[in-house]
From TrEMBL, chain A:
It comes from the Eukaryota. Part of the multisubunit transport protein particle (TRAPP) complex. This is Trafficking protein particle complex subunit. Its main location: endoplasmic reticulum. Signal peptide: none annotated. The keyword Transcription does not apply. It comes from Kockovaella imperatae. GO terms for cellular component: endoplasmic reticulum; Golgi apparatus; TRAPP complex. Residues 32-52 are annotated as: Disordered. GO terms for biological process: endoplasmic reticulum to Golgi vesicle-mediated transport.
TrEMBL record, chain B:
Its main location: endoplasmic reticulum. It comes from the Eukaryota. Coiled coil: none annotated. One of its GO terms (cellular component) is endoplasmic reticulum. One of its GO terms (biological process) is Golgi vesicle transport. Belongs to the TRAPP small subunits family. BET3 subfamily. This is Trafficking protein particle complex subunit BET3. It is found in: Endoplasmic reticulum; Golgi apparatus, cis-Golgi network. Gene3D superfamilies: Trafficking protein particle complex subunit 3 (3.30.1380.20). It comes from Kockovaella imperatae.
């Protein structure tokens, strides 16, 4: 059982925060033209750089065989001998895929039931996606091991705890910004602590 | 309606008990000093009203997150319910007051006579914690200063985020 990654999206559908733990699929930093500060801490993309030189907390659990934590459809992007720096999806594309799948599934769920019903999670053989939506349009997405129970309560705890304390009550964070994420050291370490304290983590 | 409003009252009381408090006098005097400073800076009551509203709006956009996290309420199904929640839960949580809620008579809304629910409501602050020690000079009253206009901004900002 483990937790792979966390995404937070805002009301403008932009990814404003990303953090990962035991990812098994490599991820590249986005190209400089699509770079949005304050979202993730992936080392900036450089032409000669290999994917293995990412910051230490993200480089754990690398395996070339890779159980996919990302979207399975994108699997052909890797392993085609394009060189180590080309492995994995760029971050911005992966975030778009995650948001897209959440949004379209949510709309289908609503249409099928005819009521305003929330999508809570779905799972594949390789991962499980948990979704928590706030009324203000923030969407918290967590990818975890498929065998884990519902982790929606964890996302709610993140919202009422770390998010409120270090983002909403932080005057230095522009909450409705389209150009910047909400990353800050305290929030990142609080999220990290919270996740590592969970029994499903490990 | 009455059972719903009782339920909201209970939620409001409950959240208020668990809220961290600040000294009411410090809060009131700070707000008063803020308004005075704005008047000095802008020298125009209309502009002061506008600034207070803007400050409130910025507070409201963040306060709504705090409110939702604490109460865990779901989306309101009707406008009347929204009014109830603002009066009985929101004002209770943050200011420990419960403004009187009233709906203007239906004839006052010629624009939407067919609407089954009210499309506007009035919150009357029976006691206003912001104005506890405030005594407006005559020229401020006549000049059209809206002393507690920050509250309007907070409501607008908060509701806009959940619209």
């Amino acid at each position: 059982m483990t937790i792979f990654s966390l995404y937070i999206f805002d009301r403008h559908c932009d990814c404003i925060y990303y953090q990962d733990w035991n990812r098994t699929r490599p991820l590249r930093a986005p190209s400089t033209t699509n770079f949005k500060p304050g979202v993730h801490r992936l080392a900036p993309a450089q032409p000669s750089q290999t994917a293995g030189t990412r910051e230490s907390i993200f480089s754990s659990g690398f395996s070339s065989g890779g159980i996919g934590t990302g979207i399975t459809k994108a699997g052909n992007a890797m392993g085609s001998g394009a060189g180590a720096s080309q492995r994995g999806l760029p971050f911005d594309e992966e975030a778009k895929l995650v948001y897209g799948v959440v949004l379209s599934l949510r709309n289908m769920v609503k249409k099928l039931s005819g009521r305003d019903e929330p999508l809570t999670s779905y799972s594949t053989p390789h991962y499980k996606l948990h979704l928590y939506e706030t009324l203000t349009g923030y969407r918290f997405v967590l990818l975890s091991d498929p065998s884990s129970d519902s982790l929606r309560f964890v996302l709610r705890q993140l919202y009422t705890g770390a998010f409120l304390e270090y983002v909403v009550r932080n005057p230095l964070i522009d909450m409705d910004s389209r150009t910047e994420g909400i990353d800050n050291d305290q929030f990142r370490s609080a999220v990290d602590r919270h996740m590592k304290s969970l029994s499903v983590f490990s | 309606m009455s059972s719903g409003s009782k339920q909201y009252k209970a939620i409001g009381d409950d959240v208020w008990k668990r809220t961290d408090k600040v000294n009411a006098e410090l809060f009131t005097l700070t707000y008063g000093a803020l308004v005075v400073q704005l008047i000095k800076d802008y020298e125009d009551y209309g502009e002061v009203n506008k600034q207070l509203e803007k400050m409130g709006y910025n507070m409201g956009t963040r306060l709504i997150e705090d409110f939702l996290a604490r109460t865990g309420l779901q989306r309101c199904s009707s406008f009347a319910e929204t009014a109830e929640v603002i009066s009985k839960v929101a004002f209770k949580t943050f200011l420990n007051i419960t403004p009187t809620l009233s709906f203007p008579p239906a004839s006052a809304q010629p624009s939407n006579p067919s609407l089954p629910q009210p499309s506007e409501f009035i919150l009357t602050l029976d006691d206003n914690p912001l104005a506890e020690f405030a005594d407006l000079p005559r020229d401020a009253k006549e000049g059209g200063l809206w002393f507690s206009n920050v509250l309007c901004g907070v409501i607008r900002g908060a509701l806009e985020m959940v619209s």
